[in-house]
Design goal:
Length: 104
Amino acid sequence: MGFIKKVVPFFLTFAIGLFVASFFVSIAAPSFKIPNRGWKRHQQYHQRIESENQRLREKNLRLERELAEKERQEEIVFSPDANFDVPPPPPMPPAPYKPMSQRR
């Protein structure tokens, strides 16, 4: 008897909730049917993106190879006895002036 007293109110509340919800939303089971036209469009988009990614990968590899080749050609060798005409550093600025009241 105690089980029925607990279960019946639950189902009644659930049924009333479904009834009220049916005014605002459809309670029917959803349809997961995918139209073929949409699927074909998705496949075409996917193929286009894949081909663009492949083209960009190849371009990236080509540019990396070109950069490495230029770096090898323009490699600069510094010798320790190289004479560079570098001007001397500028003189140090004078020390800041402190008034007599702050010298203590």
